[in-house]
């Protein structure tokens, strides 16, 4: 028996050795389908990239300030604001506290026109239309027990279809994914009207695709999975290595909008955006109980992330958060009107000279030895040249932001100064009051 085992060892070694060098990004490099998707994805990154990101910043702030004006101004919004009670249901009349929500949330007939939210996005991910114009696919089955041949009615069956789909759910459900959920392009996952949780299994993978919207779901307790042969479209299955345990992993993809998600306790990151992904907005999220929250760019040597552009807006980073909210490499990042109430190490970090524009955020330091908002992972002689700007931020309980680089970036465009001005950080508690998954019911405002 022992001799038989020894005879198999060289064969096993050669088999494993032949696989290891050609695996990357959880896929087999020799897989021609994935290699073609990678090439197509990079071309889309070049197309989606905005050469003048200040235009997107200006457009965002213009809409926020218009919403404040239409709501009666800063003083009226402050007077009408109530203290956030996350975890407790709000039972008063519908209140829209930021321009994304004002676009749709107080309409009791939202369920009759689910596509409406496509018109509501702001920031770098505003081009995302998801499954608009496609048929509505209703998930009726919470199971995920066949990775190779997903059962019709399951979420996995929905996301691998070729055509645009707007995916909804017949009832409240907890979906435990046996392996990472690999999405195809032109899809919306819309959890409004029920309570949808992705939990206690693998997370969602958005890889080498375009045009994705994820809206109003809760993702928690995500685990690493071993990988294997997984169906990633109706016509292809491929070998995947072990998944990292990210809640949402965005890899080499474009035009993505993640809105009103609640996320906590993932094995790795809550949201990772890497490998030249661009055109992304993360808005109205509620994030708690996590160490490595958001990673934007995973490798200091991957210079294609220079094209990465992300808006992070109206989110609440809450209890027991530690770091990476976000942690950035290369790229351009507009961090605007978020509420940071907890961090144990730092809130915003980076390496490889990212441009970070922090506007109208509220930073409340809750840890006695972690007052600095920012962290650079290199010598000051290098990072002092990076453009990290704080503009209109509110710092509480000893919090402070170390700016660097070009602090006069808006003044280079004096004709745009009024539009570039961010909304007041004093309104952040109000603007993020309904962050996270909403308890929506049909025929009622959300």
Protein architecture, described:
The protein has about 450 residues and is an alpha/beta fold. The protein has two domains: about 1-40, no CATH class; about 40-430, Single-stranded right-handed beta-helix, Pectin lyase-like (Pectate Lyase C-like), CATH 2.160.20.10. It is built from nine helices and 33 strands. Strands 3-4-7-10-15-18-22-26-29-32 form a ten-stranded parallel β-sheet. The longest helix is centred in the first third of the chain and has 18 residues, at about 1-20. The N and C termini lie far apart (about 65 Å). Mean pLDDT is about 90; it is low at about 1-25.
> In the CATH hierarchy, what is the superfamily of the largest domain?
Single-stranded right-handed beta-helix, Pectin lyase-like
Structural class: alpha/beta
- Give, in spatial order, the strands making up the sheet with the most strands: 3-4-7-10-15-18-22-26-29-32
Global geometry: globular
Uncertain stretches of 5 or more adjacent residues: 1-23
CATH class bucket of the largest domain: Mainly Beta
CATH structural fold name of the largest domain: Pectate Lyase C-like
Compute the number of strand runs.
33
Sheet with the most strands, sense and barrel status: 10 strands, parallel
Number of helices: 9
Count of folded domains? 2
Q: How much helical structure, as a percent, in the residues?
A: 10-25%
Please compute the radius of gyration using only Cα atoms.
Answer: 22 Å
Residue-averaged pLDDT? 90
Strand content: 25-35%
Ends distance: 66 Å
